[in-house]
């Protein structure tokens, strides 16, 4: 029984591969437009509003910046996909270093927010003592400089082979290049293991802390109400025994009561005490919910990069020329023949889905962060809408 073209040699069905790539391109156009506009809008909101100058939001801005680069220079970015489909002229191999820069920056951009939330959960006191806006900005700048330095190192080592530009789908063959795998894919696996262990531990701690906090919120209100109301009544003798019957002589009860400290709370004071405590618990609960969402989202984005690195690791060594003396043209044909399985539909669809998630990253950040939603709403509707919402809330109260 003959295999379906979807499972046969990709080189034997390049027309089918091209048709699939065109479908991917037209499916990506809405995400290109939406991703570019929403990423620029969120970065502007974070930079404009001082209330969002927190390490968490600054690291989110770095991650969004990485996604913006990927919209243009990712494997399924606008520029490279247009070039593969013939809408743009074949590019010089030097442009592939933009892709390598994007991959290095994406590693740090998805790892740093994840580690940030992990540290905030595991060591909260140290984190909130040392984590400042200036430190977050320094970390972002250093990560960008590190990506630039590693890209220059890759250029000096000649990671991009000279024959790559002559291939039909060069970006995919770069994923299986031995030097690319050694410089990016294998380091990613080690970092992914560290992030997975750290974030899993932090998620367990955060979920347990949320459960305890939920119980405390449920019991605090009734406890404060009971405790405060007991001080408004005239102090009477303590009920003896477990059932509350009489016990002890009246003289002893009087001496006992006279020696107790007196705590007098007015109705306003007790209400304010209860309100402040509940408000602190609510703030902490909101923060822990955001932390759990951030941890889950950033861990997902970082682990999902495996879609682009794992195929190269599996096919590692397929570009081995075995000291061939063939001409350059025959060399790239040999590499295409040996590494053609990187063009398999199922590998490309996984990579395509990964980039779609990256392009739609602003949606995930907006869904998990109320402050970002408020900032974006203010940017779109203006300050008048915010003032109207506050006045409406006061009227309702």
Descriptive keywords:
single chain, mainly alpha, Rhopdopsin 7-helix transmembrane proteins, 16 helices, elongated, disordered N terminus
Question: Can you summarize this structure?
Answer:
It is a multi-pass membrane protein. The protein has 397 residues and is mostly helical.
Topology summary:
Layout: H1 14-48, H2 55-73, H3 78-84, H4 96-122, H5 124-130, H6 133-157, H7 170-175, H8 178-230, H9 250-258, H10 267-304, H11 306-314, H12 328-338, H13 345-359, H14 361-368, H15 370-381, H16 383-396
Helix pairs in contact: 1-2, 1-3, 1-13, 1-15, 2-4, 2-6, 4-5, 4-6, 4-8, 4-10, 8-10, 8-11, 14-15, 15-16
Describe the structure.
The protein has helices at 14-48, 55-73, 78-84, 96-122, 124-130, 133-157, 170-175, 178-230, 250-258, 267-304, 306-314, 328-338, 345-359, 361-368, 370-381, 383-396. It is mainly alpha-helical. The protein has a single domain, classed as Rhopdopsin 7-helix transmembrane proteins, CATH 1.20.1070.10. Helix 1 runs antiparallel to helix 2 (55-73), helix 1 packs across helix 15 (370-381) and helix 8 runs antiparallel to helix 10. The relative contact order is 0.13. The model is unreliable at 1-7 and 230-265 (pLDDT under 50). It is a multi-pass membrane protein.
